Amino acid sequence: GHLEVVKFLADRGADIIVANNDRKKPVFSAAFNSHLEVVKFLADKGANIMVADNYGWTPLFIAALKGHPEVVKLLAAEGADIMAADKDGWTPLFAAAINGHLEVVKFLADKGADITVASNNG
Question: Where are the ANK repeats (predicted)?
Fold first, then answer.
């Protein structure tokens, strides 16, 4: 699986927290694709789960946008900011709601995410 590949690369000295040109790091891809074990491994190895890409998206934002509740829960438990807004003012809750990811919306609301926050466009 994906975790074995990441571990293999890490064991051989690969920089598993390096960013690409959009400032996305491997933890972004893992969150985007719902690779829970990889997200956990990278966080345990020091990946910055609060880092934002050029759009202001964090790994938690991406997981919420894509509707990956287990990844959202893990990142929140690891200390990710559930209210971190992107450059347009979208919060993870807003991104989940607009994409119909009810389980993620419920989790974030239960964790205290502000359901009244509007984007920069209202």
Answer: 1-21, 22-54, 55-87, 88-120
Which structure tokens are listed for 105? 């919306």
Taking the CA atoms of 96, 100, 90 and 19 in sequence, report the sign of the dihedral they define.
positive
In this prediction, residues 69-77 reach a mean pLDDT of 98
- For residue 79, the tally of other CB atoms under 10 A from its CB is 10
10 neighbors 18 (Cβ within 8 angstroms): no
Class for the domain spanning 2-110: mainly alpha
pLDDT over threshold 90, residue 9: no
For residue 55, what are its two tokens?
């759009």
User: What is the separation of C-alpha 81 from the centre of its chain, rounded to a whole number of angstroms?
Assistant: 10
Is the pLDDT score of 21 beyond 70? no
Domain ranges in the chain are 2-110
Q: What's the pLDDT at 20?
A: 58
Rounded to an integer, the average pLDDT of 105-113 is 97
For residue 78, CA distances in Å to 11, 43, 48 come to 23, 8, 10
Return the residue matching tokens 């190895």: 45
